[in-house]
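Exercise 7b. Backbone tokens:
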């Protein structure tokens, strides 16, 4: 769908429908061939490509696998090719090889001509297979570094105590020690077994924000992908976008954070729902 008019960079590949939606041009649709395989190792017929769509794939990969994927994509694209990604895939690793065609778009072009196709690496780590993880709300509200008393996190649903509560309690107790390395280690330990644990990711964001803002951004994008009403993650993304001069993007994140704040505030706490204080993660 389109937020407004068709942007100039999309006109060569897309047509606008009567319902204000966009579709690939019929000439491109006729040329599509489906081929399952490992993007890091498989042969790609007919490369290089003028248009590449990579939606919500990289977010499930490790940082090193993300960078190998980005290098491979850059290597199979023509000089003027367009790369379209999902909002969760606009990770900082893209900025090494690509630049946005528009501040408001999840569309990128290569920064410079990349030459030949990136060779296949025999021992490249395989992409994860199987069905994509199902989006789900966190099983406990997140609240690291929410210093304003007017902010309320999204209440947890009235369910039996989740199995990971003891892990988050451990993180909370570590936060009380004011030992950043211990907090980071505790958060990473939880994420090893529960990679979608939002409180653990938020705790890690607070520790990595100054030392590694790229990692903090990737974590925050993952958080808001899992739960779009995570105010703290949205505000961190806004701040990081500001630092990098992406003012329009920063303003969008702030508007999303405000909407999330209002939704969280207006949602009644159900019986058995936990507040941010109950999780022990508030600092």
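Sequence design result:
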């Amino acid at each position: 769908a389109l937020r407004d008019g068709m942007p100039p960079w999309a006109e060569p590949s897309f047509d606008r429908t009567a319902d204000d939606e966009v579709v690939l041009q019929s000439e491109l649709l006729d040329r599509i061939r489906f081929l399952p395989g490992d993007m890091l190792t498989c042969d790609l017929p007919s490369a290089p490509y003028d248009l590449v769509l990579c939606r919500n794939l990289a977010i499930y990969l490790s940082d090193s696998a993300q960078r190998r994927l980005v290098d491979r994509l850059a290597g199979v694209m023509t000089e003027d090719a367009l790369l379209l990604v999902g909002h969760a895939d606009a990770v900082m690793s893209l900025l090494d090889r690509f630049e946005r065609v528009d501040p408001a778009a999840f569309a990128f072009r290569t920064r410079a001509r990349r030459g030949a196709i990136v060779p296949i690496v025999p021992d490249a780590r395989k992409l994860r297979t199987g069905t994509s993880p199902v989006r789900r709300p966190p099983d406990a509200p997140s609240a690291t570094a929410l210093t304003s008393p007017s902010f309320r996190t999204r209440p947890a649903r009235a369910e039996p105590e989740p199995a990971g509560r003891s892990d988050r309690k451990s993180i909370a107790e570590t936060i009380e020690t004011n030992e950043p390395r211990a907090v980071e280690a505790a958060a990473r330990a939880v994420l090893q077994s529960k990679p979608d644990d939002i409180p653990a990711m938020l705790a890690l964001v607070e520790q990595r924000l100054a030392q590694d803002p790229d990692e903090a951004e990737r974590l925050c994008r993952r958080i808001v992908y899992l739960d779009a009403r995570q105010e703290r993650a949205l505000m961190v993304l806004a701040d990081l976008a500001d630092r990098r001069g992406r003012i329009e993007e920063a303003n969008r994140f702030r508007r999303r954070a405000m909407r999330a704040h209002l939704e969280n505030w207006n949602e009644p706490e159900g019986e058995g729902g936990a507040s941010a204080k109950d999780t022990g993660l508030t600092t």
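Instructor comment: Residues 33-110 form a domain with the Rossmann fold fold (CATH 3.40.50.150). Confidence is low (pLDDT under 50) at residues 113-164, 270-283.
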